[in-house]
Amino acid sequence: MKLGEATTEQNILQACYQFKQLKIFDSWHCRYHVAGRNLSMTISVNDKWGGTPVVFDNFVWTTQKDLSARVKHELPLFMTGLPLHSGLVDDIIHVLEQVAAEHGIKSPVRYSEWWTNRGLNVFFIEGLPTPVTSLQIEGENAPPPEEVQKWSESYRKEDFSAARLTWIIGFIKRDLYAPRGYLRPVVGEPTIQPLAEKDGKYPVRVIIPISSGALYTFDSVRFEGLAKEHSASLLAKWKLQAGAPYNTAYVDSFISDEILRAPWGQHSKTESAVVNPCAKIDEPSQKVSLTITVEAPKKTYRYQPPMKGDYECGTRMGTLTLPSVH
């Protein structure tokens, strides 16, 4: 339908039905009003939930932002967050194949079911290998290049995946920033630098700008849920000093080595101590106070049927589960 052109009630109903089939809003309502020979239609929608991120995977010659703008220009209803399997999938694929053709790539574009099952709308060019030659981190207080090189070795063996960056960035913050006391780094838009095409492959360099943010230091630790002698023993083994950068890797290894592997921390393959670390951050001082609560394993005791002359406590073999005795 176009403004000023004749239409019918059937066309209106068909338009509302087609809008419903797009499945891009969590609720919608369509109504129309007739005044004389003029007709107006209003569609009310609710999209507070925001949808699921749309990711363009191996379009390495452009940015996610620019490609989203191109699709938005062609499809005004496109949003960077859409429901999974929305009614726009085929239209988006058509636009992306036009973009790929403009860069001399005739391969079809696909919608990834594998990533859909993991909560992302991912579109990729079929059969376009984009191996990563290097993964770089730039920004304030970035890790040493040799550390990044060693950490990224496994990722440089795979093809580039913009969708996988959603995982890699989380691992970068966990493995390269949090252990050095930078608990809240801010990640900018990654830059993908296409290198010279060779033998049908499009190698790339991935550069991720990260601002480290504030440096948080360790203040104190206490252990709860244990007997006093066990708490004192753990405190004596604690090596992270007050004023040092808060090291999450040290906390994790201490829990694993000194608590979960301790004789009183183990019981069986199915029952062992449960440890809950809680880091309390004081923003004004940027200090972290840590409380490690240990729920010791339960122990199972077996008892025998009473012998003649004993008190009558039971008549059959059985098990009785009691809390550990410290």
**Share of residues in strands:** 25-35%
Indicate the mean pLDDT: 84
Low-confidence stretches: 307-326
Using the CA coordinates, give the radius of gyration: 30 Å
Task: Give the SSE string.
Answer: HEEEHEHEHEEHHEEEEHHEEEE
Give the CATH architecture of the largest domain: Roll
| Structure summary, number of beta strands | 15
Number of helices: 8
Give the spatial strand order of the biggest sheet: 4-3-6-5
Q: Tally the structural domains.
A: 3
Coarse morphology:
elongated
- Helix fraction? 25-40%
CATH topology of the largest domain: Ubiquitin-like (UB roll)
Biggest β-sheet description: 4 strands, mixed
Model description:
- The protein has 326 residues and is of the alpha+beta class.
- The chain contains eight helices and 15 strands.
- The protein starts with 8 loop residues before the first helix and ends with a strand.
- Helix content is 26%, strand content 28%.
- The chain has helices spanning 9-22, 64-74, 89-102, 113-116, 145-151, 165-177, 228-237, 248-260, and strands at 27-35, 38-46, 52-56, 81-82, 109-111, 121-125, 132-138, 186-187, 191-194, 204-211, 217-224, 274-282, 287-295, 299-303, 318-322.
- Mean pLDDT is 84; it is low at 307-326.
- The longest helix has 14 residues, at 9-22.
Topology:
Elements: H1 9-22, E1 27-35, E2 38-46, E3 52-56, H2 64-74, E4 81-82, H3 89-102, E5 109-111, H4 113-116, E6 121-125, E7 132-138, H5 145-151, H6 165-177, E8 186-187, E9 191-194, E10 204-211, E11 217-224, H7 228-237, H8 248-260, E12 274-282, E13 287-295, E14 299-303, E15 318-322
Parallel strand pairs: 3-6, 7-10, 11-13
Antiparallel strand pairs: 1-2, 3-4, 5-6, 8-10, 9-10, 12-13, 14-15
